[in-house]
Amino acid sequence: MFISPAFAQSSGGLAEGGFGLLPIIFVMVIFYFLLIRPQQKRAKQHKEMLGALRRGDKIITSGGLTGSIVKVVDDSETVEVEIAKDVKVHIVRSMIADIQNKAEPAKKK
Fold first, then answer.
1. CB of 49 within 8 A of CB of 60?
2. β-strands 87-92, 58-61: how paired?
């Protein structure tokens, strides 16, 4: 009774112009720069590291095992790693977390 029907049904005015989506877009941009982009960069570096594996490299696996690479086949998913004297295991490339010591490349004759 005290409020006219036209005034009670009107909206705030700011949401009509698309300003209601602005905070959502802002949050998505923040997520991209703080979460998605750094993760993509780390994944790219890890893939490059796995591509550069050589015989003699000292590695650490995701499970915490350390060892040296004995055999690397480029088109294979696994590498052969010696974790103790005369103990060799096959490890999936993607489970290699880090390279401790890079081996020097073999000199070509």
1. no
2. unpaired
**Residues 82-93 pLDDT 10s:** 999 999 999 999
- Please give the model's pTM, rounded to 2 decimal places: 0.67
Q: What DSSP letter does each residue of 55-100 carry, written as one string?
A: TT-EEEETTS-EEEEEEE-TT-SEEEEEEETTEEEEEEGGGEEEEE
CA atoms of 73 and 54, how far apart (whole Å):
9
Specify the amino acid at residue 82.
Answer: E
Structure-token pair, residue 106: 């073999």
Whether residue 93 contacts residue 53, with contact meaning beta carbons closer than 8 Å, is answered with yes
Q: Which amino acid is at 57?
A: D
